[in-house]
Every structure is written in structure tokens, then in C-alpha cells.
Amino acid sequence: MNIFEFLRDWSEVWPLLIPLIIFLIWRPTGKSIGALVWYVFLAFVVNFWAIFILEYYNLLPEWTYRKGNNLFYNLHSFIMVIFFGWYLVTVRSYKYKIFLKALLGFYVILVIANFAFFEPFHRLSTRHFTVGSIILLLLCLFYFFSSIMEESKNNWVNHPSFIIVSAIFLYQAVTFFIFLFIYPLYDKSYNIDLSFAYLMMRVYQVIFIVFCIMLGIGLIKYHKQKRGSIAL
What tens digit of pLDDT does each residue of 74-105 get? Predict the structure, then answer.
């Protein structure tokens, strides 16, 4: 395996080191930044095990991989919605903050109900991914509209949170349809030529790298902003 194959195979893990290292070196501070740190750390651990099981299942006892690594993808999606949802709801003020918090509560209830009654947790859940993406996209839109339309002494377009939210929105907008149709893409009875499915996975890997780079840039902006120049 050459370095390019290694980077490709582990492209859901090493990009998370970008924001993680930036945080460890520069220690950026800001309102709700703890949500970002928790996401990066937990996502790194979860994605590491997901790829490790995929790449080195022959080194592991059977019980650790016999149901695959899909439960880690479900867990990553849950972590992403919870911590980025927390970040989006608390990073600035909104007129309808109770409604936004209710969206997150509604999501948690749906996830519990889905895996308790409809789908096993070790099966990649398109329903789970779809609902999570819709929740985050809605929260991002509330952030954008509030930042652009509301009168405020803060220039939210130049605020570090703006690039963080842009990263979340871009990632969710691109991956929404990939995970929504993941089973038909890989089902040979629907799709004889799997090359398009593999291409979509490459798109997913690339957008995840871009997503992590944008998170890193946002953390650097948090570090560079002058204390007190922007209300946090």
C-alpha cells in the first residue's frame, strides 16, 4: 500500500487531526467552542474504529466485526447532529430559540424510536442520516438568515462561526443524497454498474476532507480574533 492509498482508505480519520491539532496548539476560545472540540475528538475515535475494523478485521476477534462497522457510522451521525446542533443553537441569539432546541429534542426522540422499534443499530440507517441532515440544514439556515437579516452590532459574516456553519451546511448538502440512496447505489438489482457508487464514495471522502479543513480555518479565526472585538 502506497501513501496515496493509505490516505484514501483513512480519509475519514486523518482529516479530523487538522482541527484537533489546531485546537491543541492554539487553544482557541469562544462561545460554544466546546461543542466543536467534543465533536472532533469523539468523531476521530469513532471513525478510527470504523476504518480499523474495515481494514484489519482479520486481526480482531469475530464478535468485534461480524456485524460490520455500520454502527460506528450511525454513531458518528448522531454525534455530529448533537454537538453541531448544540453549537448552532447556542453560538448566537435567535428569536425562536425554543423551537430550535425542540428540533434537537425531536431528533433524539426519533433516533431512540428508530433503533428501538424499526432498525437494528448495526445497520446503516438512511432514515437516521436523512433526519439528522434535515435538522442540521434547518439549523444552518436559521443561523444564516438570522446573521444576514437581523440588525446587530456584530458582523456575523466575518465571525468565526460563519465558516464553521458554512462547513456544516456544505457537508450536509452534499452528503444528504449520497446516504439517502446508499442502498440502491450498491444494490446490483438496481445498479448493475457500481462505478457511480464508488464515485459517490470518493465525493464523500473529498467533502469530508474539505469539511475538516474548514473547521480548522474556523478554529484559527477564533484564535486570531481580538478578545472583546466580537461578542461571543
Answer: 999 999 999 999 999 998 877 778 888 999 99
Helices 160-180 and 70-90 sit at what angle, rounded to 10 degrees? Answer: 150
Q: Are 151 and 115 in contact (CB under 8 A)?
A: no
Cα–Cα distance, 167 to 17 (Å, whole number): 16
**C-alpha distances out from residue 136 to 72, 97, 172, 206, Å:** 19, 14, 7, 20
Q: What is the pLDDT of residues 161-172, one digit of tens each?
A: 999 999 999 999
CA 122, CA 231: separation in Å to the nearest integer? 43
Higher pLDDT pick, 65 / 232: 65
Domain definitions of the chain by residue range: 3-224
**What DSSP character marks residue 226?**
P
Apex 168 CA angle, 194 and 79, nearest 5: 85
The whole-model pTM stands at: 0.88
